[in-house]
């Protein structure tokens, strides 16, 4: 999850970004324009140099990342320009875009600023300029189109008609499935962390309502997905796009699928893990032909093919209800921290002071030790899995990573120890001092709260 998000903010014109030399057979024109909040953005327009009738244009909107340079989409820009389009690529903003904060409305405003700049270019027909968006851009471009009739068409590649939190959870779960993981780690633990991050504000735009936006898109839309898309569910999304567009009364869409392509419709030599430098065969031709057709009045009518095979379906990841909210989690975490550490720390303090220490029961010792690890371990292990670009769950036994199996064993031990501690606490209630009863009672209370906590995080589930 967080591993898929990108860098901290910097200036809008970071070093290393700048003009793109004109590729062979094309003309490159440098432009500057105002994005959201008056931020100045810089880009390059690529087009064939010959004179003639004004040509259609397209603004390319990149995927996630802070300050992504314009040449990130140079391959697409060159191929589209060679097919008769004027293509704008621009340096993505880094101001106001971080790991934990981004605003698709702001990014849509940036894209609309680019659209206005491209519409003003000599040789471009201002009534035939649209947008193309990759991945995150697949949320941004429909939003921009829904806000402005100046957008003549919309193209999304590896796009999502689902909330980002659902897409990201599918992405991360799919990575784990590919290394043999199954069971509660991916069924309960991963969604729990995603929902916690969304509730805590650590997942930017987690519940962005893509369906509502698509219902307001009136322009013709081209959707492109690769059969080896490992980041976006290529089978789930096309029907969701169609449903939302049709609900809004828009049937002018085309969906196409490239079986040997990755998330960005590039060729991939290894099933989507590595992105090749070349576009999928026929993809650039499709874009060029489709744009020329729709800007000439030849609108598609619900033109789609069968989606590619998707091995595992994505699942909805709803917001946390109040009883599982951030504040309830924090309250439970404080209880665990106090209860599971107070028992041994109080005993240690008494020994250091030379005071007589009542012998600790084996159940209380087990509850304090196992409970602490079982309560906080799942969160940190799950966070570790999403912090890197590729998950390394450790040795997998029967579909369960070894660290997860250890946490599950500790969770069971915690429940058993809580029952044993409760029995001893009840038996010794009249025989021990009040402070000792409080200490044991706190342990028992933490053990009781631990049960729904462990079910929520999946360590008490198979």
From TrEMBL:
The keyword Transmembrane helix applies. One of its GO terms (biological process) is proteolysis. Residues 108-266 form the Peptidase S9 prolyl oligopeptidase catalytic domain. One of its GO terms (molecular function) is carboxylic ester hydrolase activity. Keywords: Hydrolase, Membrane, Transmembrane, Transmembrane helix. InterPro entries: AB_hydrolase_Est10, AB_hydrolase_fold, Peptidase_S9_cat. Pfam families: Peptidase_S9 (PF00326). The chain crosses the membrane at residues 326-346, 366-384, 404-425, 437-459. This is Alpha/beta hydrolase. It comes from Actinomadura darangshiensis.
